[in-house]
Write a structure and sequence with these properties.
9 helices, 3 domains, Arc Repressor Mutant, subunit A, four-stranded antiparallel β-sheet, five-stranded antiparallel β-sheet, Alpha-Beta Plaits, alpha+beta, globular, 303 residues
Length: 303
């Protein structure tokens, strides 16, 4: 088990290095980085593995093709299977955690796991297979906001995305890219006799840039939102920003004020309410009124 763990860690270390800011990594630099990273993880001395063997294993296990550019004198990622989730850093971190436990299988002695993990779904392996092999899928979909109405769907699956302990399927229904909660999918079927051309022009980073969480509703305008908190809540919002667009306007002993630029969706409003102890919505006025009404109705229910 130890040798397998070491080998997989080496592969992840190499991938992490090659997915960095530098396009080409010279042989000497890459080998030095691998040696230092593995020594830091408790593996000293030579492993007996060659860089060429590691590169072959990376291609086999992760679908990532690594090549050497003679002109630039460095290794680089030539291409990678787009169906592989880009979580190499997170996977490496998990291996580092297990390695630090030095073989102790009683994980609860050291680590308290979060109870609210992404819910397991029997649909995930089928959806990953359908995405990878470009097969349409059909399923029955439960519309929670419409009294659990059920609709028949046939879509072209493109991506799986995790958000707030839930999995979501990004798929084309007709010409529209839509989001489906995997936990609301029933009777999933893969149309194995059909294939489609996957749209590789989707800019995934931009797709959710102006939204909070998974719901990107183009009909909702992108707005500047100014929020005020006390200094205590400010400490938490500095360590874990509300949104990638967060700008700190004021930070002192009396208040913490920020501005974010996004679409004001239901998910975003719910997130604001989760830290309502000191929240004050400064702008826009319609969001301030929306939050006020939520508080007012909650007060009536709890009188």
């Amino acid at each position: 088990m130890g040798s397998r763990t070491e080998g997989l860690q080496r592969l992840l270390v190499i991938i992490n290095k090659l997915k960095g800011k530098k396009r080409y990594i010279p042989t000497r630099e890459l080998k030095r980085y691998i040696a230092e990273a593995m020594e830091m993880r408790g593996y000293s001395g030579k492993s007996g593995r060659t860089l060429e063997r590691d590169i072959d294993d990376i291609q086999s296990l992760f679908g990532i093709s690594i090549a050497y550019a003679k002109r630039e004198q460095g290794y680089y990622i030539k291409e990678e299977d787009e169906s592989i989730p880009e979580r190499y850093g997170q996977l490496l971190q998990n291996f580092d955690l297990l390695n630090a436990l030095e073989g102790d299988t009683n994980l609860r002695t050291y680590v308290l796991a979060e109870h609210h993990r992404p819910l397991p779904s029997e649909c995930l392996p089928m959806l990953i297979s359908a995405i990878k092999h470009r097969h349409p899928v059909t399923f029955r979909y439960i519309l929670v906001r419409q009294d659990d109405k059920v609709e028949e769907k046939k879509v072209l699956p493109h991506y799986l995305k995790e958000s707030n302990q839930r999995w979501y399927l990004l798929a084309y229904e007709g010409d529209v890219l839509k989001t489906f909660g995997v936990d609301r999918i029933r009777d999933l079927r893969i149309c194995a006799s059909e294939t489609f051309k996957r749209n590789m022009d989707i800019n995934v980073d931009e797709l959710f840039r102006d939204c909070y969480g998974i719901w990107n509703q183009p009909d909702i305008p992108v707005e500047d939102v100014e929020l005020k908190y006390d200094a205590l809540d400010g400490k938490f919002l500095k360590s874990v920003p509300l949104h990638h667009s967060q700008q700190v306007l004021t930070d002192n002993a009396d208040e913490f004020r920020i501005k974010v630029h996004l679409r004001i969706t239901n998910d975003f409003v719910m997130e604001l309410l989760s830290r309502s102890r000191s929240l004050e919505v400064i702008s826009p006025p319609h969001l301030r009124e929306r939050v006020r009404k939520v508080y007012e109705e909650a007060l009536k229910r709890n009188e």
